[in-house]
Amino acid sequence: MNVKEFFGKVASHYLLLHLLAMAVVIVLLCMGVKLVLDIYTHHGEGIEVPELKGMTYLKARLLLEEEGLNIVVSDSGYVKTMQADCILAQTPGFGTRVKSGHTIYVTVNSPSSPTFAIPDIVDNSSYREAEAKLMAMGFKLTQPQLVVGEKDWVYGIVCRGRRVSNGDRIPIDYPLTLMIGKGNYDESEDVEFVDPTYAIDPTEGMSEVDEFEEVKGPPTGVE
Questions:
Q1: Is the pLDDT of residue 198 over 50?
Q2: Is pTM beyond 0.85 here?
Q3: Among the residues of the chain, which ranges form H helices?
Q4: Which of 44, 46, 74, 79 is the most exposed place for a label (fewest CB within 10 A)?
Q5: Which residues contact 97 (CB under 8 A, 6 or more apart)?
Q6: What is the pLDDT of residues 97-124, one digit of tens each?
Q7: Rounded to 5 degrees, what are φ and ψ at 22?
Q8: Which helix (DSSP H) or strand (DSSP E) does residue 48 occupy?
Q9: What was the pLDDT predicted at 137?
Q10: Beta-strand runs (E) in 102-209
């Protein structure tokens, strides 16, 4: 068998038909598998997640249950201008298509502002350090109150006219006033001055020559 006869058999119509049939079978098999998977997973089908932000939790739950979806509170926040128990955020977001039975996670508005413990700043930090710590926590500060003491040293905290201490839990929306030293003393304060005292010199009042009283003896010739 020469080369020409070999390639003639390879390129015969019979072989080409077999190869074409195998290709068609493979393509049909892939399409069938994809169709079965789409039917099993409900590909292309879904429920559009409604906009929940601003709704009360009860209203949002009823709406999602009607759509065949679930709702779970995953977090809470506080927005003063919004009513308590309303939805602040949701995941997945509005417009996302999900399958029936999917869970929507929401953040609800707390009925009161969250409280935070005052850090260890009273009599333990400067004004700048205390200001940075409190503002990083979210507290708002008013104009500091100057008191007698070391300049810019924090001696106390006032919240709504009441002194608070380290560790006290204060609502985050309550403004705080730091009591800091002004670096001098109040002139109205009475200051008691005491004259200095010195050690008494034991030689003070003594002359250099001791003075003795002369004692005369008995008259001469008198026994």
A1: no
A2: no
A3: 3-10, 13-41, 57-66, 127-137
A4: 44
A5: 46, 47, 48, 49
A6: 998 899 999 999 988 888 999 999 999 9
A7: -65, -40
A8: strand 47-48
A9: 92
A10: 103-109, 115-117, 145-151, 154-159, 162-164, 169-171, 177-181
